[in-house]
Specification:
This protein has 390 residues and is an alpha+beta fold. Helix content is 15%, strand content 44%. The protein has five helices and 26 strands.
Length: 390
């Protein structure tokens, strides 16, 4: 009996020691940049499993261990395709574990487990390899980590190296980012998630030595514009460049799109500026042959006014002499008004009349128009090529 109790106690201690040896993302993050990793029998062309094993030996984590178990002892129902192993459980946790040496990719994905991972290999023109591994832990604040190595076949060693993420800067603080390692193809993708505009994908294409930024894609893109007295869905077809501008520097961006001029001698670019209202993207200002963006202005605060002075007013006019005012607060549209000329019986302009085409009240409209003569806000978009993701 005593021998049984002792054996169980030693087993519990061993399990506890083994669990203690596994590292969290925070611990991996604190160590990986300072560790070169030897790859046993790596040779000239190590596959993703060999590099993953070497990484896990140096920096062991639970999730990588679960992926490697699939090769050692495949789970019942594991599918084989050449050297690739795939386990999927779509009934409970939608678990997916993939080991694909041929394409240089492996992953662990689950809806219920807090840990996720993916890794891949790129072949460099100098005979080296890039090994990248992404580790994800779901906590109150998710911990997403990307480790990036150069494998040297001469030394059979993986050395930490800068990744595109190290040189990436979020355009605005109020956004979350994620990234995707390629299961097929070679593109590395950084995705930006924000409540202010559609998901932005920054595409980095492989140049033989490293991923280089090439373009932006906008996902699930559609917007509304005001036409013939009502809001209608509009297409972004034809726009080729994108920029994000923050008129007052508060970290709440506006989405800007640009396309080629309709006429070579046109005075204005075709530009569209959008912001969100109640979950939908809507026109803030547009520049083309019929519309001209007059500028952005701080709304000057007035006693008893329904604004604080932190608002931005976008001012646009069209060839019909109608002025459009869009009031923005923290990157969102508060309300939209127009100011149209009043014409008497003789066809003469006798004044101006504000009208509501979106939100707000008539009194607020009059005040905000008058208040928008405050300081002019410079908007200088830094354009980047983009396309819509289909």
């Amino acid at each position: 009996m005593r021998k049984t109790i002792f054996t169980l106690l030693m087993l519990a201690v061993a399990i506890g020691m083994n669990a203690h040896e596994l590292l969290s993302n925070a611990e991996v993050d604190a160590q990986w940049r300072t560790k070169a990793i030897s790859v046993k029998n790596g040779g000239q062309s190590p596959n993703v499993v060999m590099l993953l094993k070497a990484f896990n030996k140096a920096l062991p984590t639970w999730v990588v261990g679960e992926v490697l178990k699939l090769q050692e002892k495949p789970l019942p129902g594991t599918k084989r395709n050449g050297t690739a192993l795939l386990f999927e459980n779509n009934e409970e946790d939608e678990l997916r574990i993939l080991l694909d040496p041929k394409n240089g990719y492996a992953c662990y994905e689950s809806l219920t487990d807090v840990d996720q991972m993916s890794c891949c290999i790129w072949r460099r023109t100098n005979g080296h390899r890039i090994f990248a591994i992404s580790l994800y832990e779901q906590h109150v604040m998710p911990q997403n980590l990307l480790c990036w190595y150069d494998y040297d076949p001469q030394t059979q060693t993986m050395t930490p190296e800068r990744s595109p993420l190290d040189d990436y800067k979020k355009p605005f603080p109020q956004m979350e980012i994620g990234w995707t390692l390629p299961q097929k193809g070679t593109d590395f993708i950084i995705r930006e998630y924000s409540p202010f505009y559609p998901t932005v994908s920054r595409i980095y294409t492989w140049d033989g030595m490293k991923p280089q930024f090439s373009k932006i894609q906008l996902e699930d893109f559609e917007y509304q514009e005001f036409a013939d007295g009502e809001w209608v869905q509009a297409s972004g077809e034809g726009f080729k460049d994108v920029a994000f501008v923050d008129p007052d520097g508060d970290g709440h961006p506006l989405l800007c799109l640009k396309k080629e001029k309709e006429y070579e001698d046109s005075e204005r670019d075709n530009m569209l500026i959008l912001a969100e209202f109640k979950g939908k993207m809507q026109t803030v200002a547009i520049s083309n042959e019929m519309h001209r963006i007059r500028g952005f202005f701080h709304a000057k605060p007035e006693e008893g006014a329904p604004w604080t002075g932190k608002e931005i007013v976008a001012y646009t006019s069209d060839f019909m002499h109608i002025n459009y005012f869009v009031v923005l607060k923290e990157g969102l549209i508060s309300y939209i008004v127009t100011e149209s000329p009043v014409i008497d019986e003789d066809g003469e302009e006798t004044g101006w009349e504000p009208k509501i085409i979106g939100y707000g009240s008539k009194d607020e409209s009059i005040h905000i128009i008058h208040a928008s003569v405050a300081d002019h806000v410079q908007v200088d978009p830094q354009w980047v090529p983009f396309e819509f993701e289909r």
